[in-house]
Write a structure and sequence with these properties.
Number of strands: 0
Oligomer: single chain
Strand content: under 5%
Number of helices: 5
Radius of gyration: 27 Å
Structural class: mainly alpha
């Protein structure tokens, strides 16, 4: 029984050492992506090519928000509507 426990423990130690380590990507801010259009477009292309894995990553989210923001600003942003007024009609 002890031999089985030792073998299982050894197997666990070996398998944890086999974990593939991903290279950490530098996370850029939304403002950085706004200022670097070429990098933003490259990041968005990368995100769109594999959305299942990358859509929720910080760089994909930040690049997407920067892209949305730049589109809105080109269109003039959100325009504030005129306040509603009420005209009292005294004629009956």
């Amino acid at each position: 029984m002890k031999q089985n426990a030792v073998m299982v423990l050894a197997l666990i130690v070996v398998l944890t050492g086999c974990k593939e380590e991903k290279q950490q990507e530098v996370v850029q801010t939304v403002e950085w992506f706004k200022e670097h259009q070429a990098e933003r477009e490259a990041q968005l292309a990368k995100c769109n090519s594999n959305p299942g894995e990358l859509a929720a990553t910080p760089n994909c989210i930040n690049a997407s928000r920067a892209d949305s923001s730049s589109v809105w600003s080109k269109r003039g942003g959100i325009k504030t509507p005129a306040p509603l007024t009420f005209e009292k009609n005294d004629k009956k």
